[in-house]
Structure formats: structure tokens, C-alpha cells
Design goal:
The longest helix is centred in the C-terminal third of the chain and has 20 residues. About 1% of the residues have low confidence. The chain has 23 helices and eight strands. The strands form two sheets. Strands 4-3-2-1-8 form a five-stranded antiparallel beta sheet, with helices on one face. The chain has a three-stranded antiparallel beta sheet with strand order 5-7-6. It folds into three domains: 97 residues, Arc Repressor Mutant, subunit A (Orthogonal Bundle), CATH 1.10.10.10; 140 residues, Tetratricopeptide repeat domain (Serine Threonine Protein Phosphatase 5, Tetratricopeptide repeat, Alpha Horseshoe); 189 residues, Alpha Horseshoe (Serine Threonine Protein Phosphatase 5, Tetratricopeptide repeat), CATH 1.25.40.10. It is mainly α and 506 residues long.
Length: 506
């Protein structure tokens, strides 16, 4: 028998009782059976046939019986099929519990461990309400909601500093706020450090709580602590193997074959998570398997298209940008422009919309340069800088524009701006991006050997996926036919084909 904690509810299968905070809910035995069945398999798609088989063994019932039962349970949970917070309907297939579930572990005598049980539960309804509201704001990935989420989780921690859930929410919210600065010359490293501290506090309070380890893994990945991040993600998967988010975090913290396996597991549990396709495609690009990457991205884009334009959980950006970059690397400028336009049209208000809008504008600009549409290219690069002035790529594009126009002075000015931006990247600790931009400037200066040598230095950085986009980066199209580029290609493919992301002997 187990006790499950999800959202504002706890379900004690031994006592056969569902509580909201300290209040016992009025539920039928069959409703409890369905909830227990879902709670034991969080994140997993449960087919209608499976539910009929296990909830009504040996009994012939109609489809409407299950539909009605799910509707009744939603009523108990105050859930909505149109905007589900607990139970998601997968049309014509079945149902999925989409809220994180905590299973309290018994000690050797069969009783919950008292200290940790307190850390994963709270009797304070205001705490639960704050955490619930904070989670709703975060899951839309809306940048405008982050400060409000931080306030909600901060209030939960103040009300009950022994409850791990408050620290987990606070860590996630601070991390998303840090992500808004990640593309700056000087990212807010203090904010990331504060998020990690909150994540560690959650693990300290509840060492057997999978969500604490999974959250910490994501934060450690952002800070470049790869070994710790992988260990934390693997711990989360071990503790709660049926929750899709832990598999995604493991994929995010790993590279090569392990990333692909973890993300495949994530999609099996939560097929509507489009961004997993983006991170899988990264591996295939690094392997130079561009047709495979294109297919994976199209699957993700199809998922996003089916979900529509309304606000939803975990929207995926970047899929069309990468499709455009792949097309441009293969000389198809028309498709590149079309895909980048799709990225821009579907950007929305998501946390990553701005970042990928900028990336799409840059690829679009280089595609227009390929077509000798210099005026449109110049306008596109200027649009990119208007969204984010702390960049190098559009300045390199404008160098090429000025040269085509015969504007020597303008070319020199843009070159100086690009060099200054590279210096800022180095000072801000963004070594990989700084080296890639250095190599691009060497290409502009027709110093191919220096460019290749600088790209090799990218692999000295700790990130196992460093340089993954080189095969589709329009800045390096002139290097790819060179024999010396082959060693870079082999290194990328080797790292992306291994288990750990480390280079393999060639």
C-alpha cells in the first residue's frame, strides 16, 4: 500500500482515503481506484482498454462508464478537461495524470519516514494554494508570469520552510528568470546560483523525492556541472521512472546515445512534449544526419500544429528555426526563409520565443544574402539587433551587406562592433559562443586556417554538446568543403555517437 501526494491532494491507499490538505474528500470506491491507478503511473498514457481491463476485470462495461468516472474524478479534483491540471484526455486513446506525484516511502517497519514525510507534505492550505498558482504560471513558460511565480513560491517557503515543494517551485521560477538573461553578454549567474541553492535545500529536506533531484539536475546542467547533473537526473528516474519530465531532464543533461534514449522514453510517456524533438535533432545535426534531424523536427512541428495557437503547457520554440538552418546548409534558401517565417509567426509569448525569433531572423538574413537580396537581408539583420542588441551574428551579416554595397567604412564599423561583442562574450563567461564567433570573424577576414583552429578549441570546453550546430551554421558554409574541416566533422559526430559525449578515437 502506498501514499501518493499530487497537487493539493494526498491519497492513502491503505486507509482508502483522499484528502485535500487535512480535509477528507467524499469519493466513491471506484473513484479512489481510478485515482490510485493513475497516481501509480504518473505521466504515462493509460489506454481505455487498459483501464477497462484493470478497473472492471471480467466485467463488460460501456465506454460511457469510463468517461463518466473520469468526469466524476475531475469534479472531485476541481479539474477541467479543456484546461487540465491533473488529468489529461488523449483523444480516442485514453488518459494521463499530468501533475507530478510524490510517493512516500515506508521505512523498514512499513511506516512513512517521519522527517521526510513532513518535507513532502504540508497541512497549510495557503502553502498548497501558493504552490499550485505558481506552477500554473510557470508551465505556460510565459516570461511575464515569472516574477508572480517567484512571489507565490516565496510565500509558500515563508509559510512552511520545512516543505520541499516550496523550494522546488522557487528554484524553477528563479531558473526561468535566469534563462531570460542567458543570451546576454553577462548572464545573471547570481540568480542561477540562488536557484541551485533552493534546489539543494529541497533535496536536503526530501532526499527520496524525485522531483527535487530532477529539478536540481536541470539547474546544474545550466551551470555546467555535467557530472552532478547527470547523477541527479538518473536518481530522479530511478525514484520515479514513470514521470516523463525526469527522462527529459536526463536527456537534457546528457548527450549522444544516452540523450536519444532518455528523450525517447520522455516522448513515450508524454507524446505531446514537442521540445524533446528539438533536443533529439541536436544530436542528429552533430552526427551530420541532417535528413534524420529534419524528420524528427517535422514530427515535433506536427505536434505543435495539432495543439493549436492557444496557451498551453510547455510550448516548443525553435523547431522551424532549425529546419530553416538545415535547409540553408543544403543550399535551399527558399525553404530556409519559409521555415524562419513560420518560426517568427508562431513565436507567441513563451519564455524562449525571443531567443528563437532572433535566431530565425539571423538565418533568414543569411538566406537572403545567398539570394543576393541585399536590402531585405540588411533589414532582417537590423530587426534582429532591434530585438537583442547583445549579439555578434547580425553584425557579421551586416559586414557582408556593406561589402556587397561597396561601403568600406560601414563594413569596418560593423567589424569593430562584432569584435567588441566577442570580447563581451568572453568576459561574461560564454566561452563556447565567443570562440564560435571568433571563428566566424576569421572566415569573414578570409583566414580559413585560423577559423578552423579556433573551432577546434570549442571542443576543449566541458559542454559535451559544444559546437553541435556548426554543421548547419551559415557562418561556416565556406569551410565545409575544405579537407581540414573533416577532423571537426569527425569529432562532432564521435561525441554525438558516444554514450558520454566525450570524443572517441578516430
Amino acid at each position: 500500500m502506498a501514499t501518493y501526494r499530487f497537487g493539493a491532494f494526498s491519497l492513502d491507499t491503505k486507509a482508502y482515503r483522499l484528502c485535500r490538505g487535512q480535509k477528507a474528500m467524499d469519493v466513491s470506491a471506484l473513484q479512489l481506484e481510478l485515482l490510485a491507478y493513475l497516481a501509480a503511473r504518473p505521466g504515462r498514457l493509460l489506454t481505455r482498454n487498459e483501464l477497462f481491463r484493470d478497473l472492471w476485470p471480467g466485467v463488460a462495461v460501456t465506454d460511457n462508464a469510463l468517461t463518466q468516472l473520469v468526469s466524476e474524478v475531475r469534479g472531485v479534483l476541481d479539474d477541467s478537461p479543456a484546461a487540465p491540471r491533473y488529468i489529461e484526455t488523449v483523444t480516442r486513446r485514453g488518459y494521463r495524470l499530468i501533475v507530478p506525484v510524490e510517493e512516500l516511502e515506508p521505512d523498514a517497519a512499513g511506516a512513512p519516514r517521519a522527517t521526510e514525510a513532513r518535507a513532502v507534505q504540508t497541512s497549510n492550505m495557503d502553502v498548497l494554494r501558493s504552490i499550485f498558482e505558481g506552477r500554473l504560471k510557470l508551465e505556460s513558460l510565459g516570461a511575464a508570469d515569472i516574477d508572480a511565480a517567484i512571489a507565490q513560491f516565496g510565500r509558500a517557503v515563508q509559510l512552511d520552510p520545512t516543505f520541499a515543494g516550496g523550494y522546488i517551485g522557487l528554484a524553477n521560477a528563479k531558473f526561468w528568470k535566469y534563462e531570460l538573461t542567458r543570451s546576454h553578454f553577462q548572464p545573471d549567474s547570481a540568480l542561477l546560483a540562488a536557484a541551485i541553492q533552493d534546489g539543494r535545500q529541497a533535496v536536503l529536506l526530501a532526499p527520496s523525492f524525485a522531483e527535487a533531484h530532477g529539478t536540481l539536475s536541470y539547474l546544474l546542467t545550466a551551470s555546467g556541472r555535467w557530472d552532478e547533473a547527470r547523477a541527479a537526473a538518473r536518481r530522479a528516474v530511478t525514484l520515479q521512472p514513470e514521470f516523463w519530465a525526469h527522462h527529459f531532464r536526463l536527456g537534457h543533461a546528457t548527450w549522444g546515445a544516452e540523450r536519444l534514449r532518455a528523450l525517447a522514453n520522455c516522448l513515450e510517456l508524454y507524446p505531446a512534449f514537442g521540445f524533446a524533438h528539438f533536443e533529439m535533432a541536436m544530436v542528429h545535426v552533430a552526427r551530420h544526419a541532417l535528413d534524420v534531424a529534419r524528420g524528427v523536427l517535422r514530427e515535433g512541428a506536427a505536434i505543435e500544429a495539432r495543439l493549436g495557437d492557444g496557451e498551453r503547457r510547455f510550448p516548443a520554440n525553435g523547431l522551424h528555426w532549425m529546419l530553416g538552418a538545415i535547409a540553408l546548409s543544403q543550399g535551399d534558401s527558399a525553404t530556409a526563409v519559409a521555415e524562419c517565417d513560420r518560426e517568427l509567426a508562431g513565436a507567441g509569448r513563451s519564455l524562449y520565443a525571443r531567443e528563437f525569433s532572433v535566431a530565425a531572423l539571423n538565418v533568414r538574413g543569411f538566406a537572403l544574402l545567398m539570394d543576393r537580396d541585399v536590402d531585405q537581408a540588411a533589414e532582417t539583420f537590423q530587426q534582429s539587433l532591434a530585438i537583442d542588441a547583445e549579439q555578434v551574428r547580425p553584425h557579421i551579416g551586416l559586414i557582408q551587406v556593406a561589402r556587397v554595397r561597396g561601403q568600406t567604412g560601414q563594413s569596418s564599423e560593423e567589424h569593430a562592433l562584432a569584435e567588441r561583442a566577442v570580447t563581451h562574450l568572453h568576459r561574461g563567461g560564454r566561452a563556447v559562443e565567443a570562440l564560435i564567433m571568433e571563428a566566424a570573424l576569421h572566415v569573414v577576414e578570409s583566414h580559413q586556417s585560423r577559423a578552423l583552429a579556433t573551432l577546434v578549441r570549442v571542443f576543449e570546453e566541458a559542454a559535451p554538446w559544444a559546437g553541435w550546430s556548426i554543421p548547419i551554421d551559415p557562418l561556416f558554409s565556406s569551410l565545409r568543403p575544405l579537407p581540414e574541416y573533416e577532423s571537426i566533422s569527425r569529432t562532432l559526430a564521435s561525441r554525438a555517437s558516444s554514450e558520454t559525449g566525450a570524443p572517441q578515437p578516430t
